[in-house]
Amino acid sequence: MSDQEKEEIIRTAIRAFPDFPSPGICFRDITPVLKDPLAFCSVIDLFEKHLRANFPKIDVIAGLDSRGFLFGPSLAQRFNIGFLLIRKKGKLPGPTESVSYSLEYGKAELEMQYDAVEPGQKVVLIDDLLATGGLGQDLYFFQEMNSNSA
């Protein structure tokens, strides 16, 4: 199946909900992608192809709470590398490092265990969308923790 066919399968599966969760926001619901094995595999295939073409060395994949948890582990398995969680504040045990950032409809704070990433590791962050630059803030977070993020 071509990349264009995979993109169309994904595009068709994603639903739009205007003015949710607040006026002016168009929420993209990925639930149908998760229900459909072909759509889900298409997402993972395209993520994998993009990463292999653009990032020759990846040591670990990090998933952002919570939708990064849906795609990240499958992608990490494809690369035969580890997966780590970046969670909302207060959800991880042990010592953590945290960062605050802006959402499309508010603010949030994320954290990860302080020893989750070793200095010099190449980290890929996985989330479901890029809306506000919050992911860019996460890149800064990883730089502060002495890793290399892609």
From TrEMBL:
Reported function: Catalyzes a salvage reaction resulting in the formation of AMP, that is energically less costly than de novo synthesis.
Native organism: Xenopus tropicalis (Western clawed frog)
One Gene Ontology cellular component: cytoplasm
Main localisation: cytoplasm
Signal peptide region: none
Name of protein: Adenine phosphoribosyltransferase
Keyword set includes Acetylation: yes
Start and end residues of each Phosphoribosyltransferase domain: 36-134
Complexes and interactors: Homodimer.
MF annotations from Gene Ontology: adenine phosphoribosyltransferase activity; small molecule binding
UniProt subcellular location: Cytoplasm
Keywords carried by this UniProt record: Acetylation, Cytoplasm, Glycosyltransferase, Phosphoprotein, Purine salvage, Transferase
EC number(s) stated in the UniProt entry for this protein: 2.4.2.7
GO biological process, one term: purine ribonucleoside salvage
UniProt xrefs under InterPro entries: PRTase-like, PRTase_dom, UPRTase/APRTase
Class of the enzyme per the UniProt entry, highest EC level: transferase
Family note: Belongs to the purine/pyrimidine phosphoribosyltransferase family.
Pathway entry: Purine metabolism; AMP biosynthesis via salvage pathway; AMP from adenine: step 1/1
Substrates-to-products reaction catalysed: AMP + diphosphate = 5-phospho-alpha-D-ribose 1-diphosphate + adenine
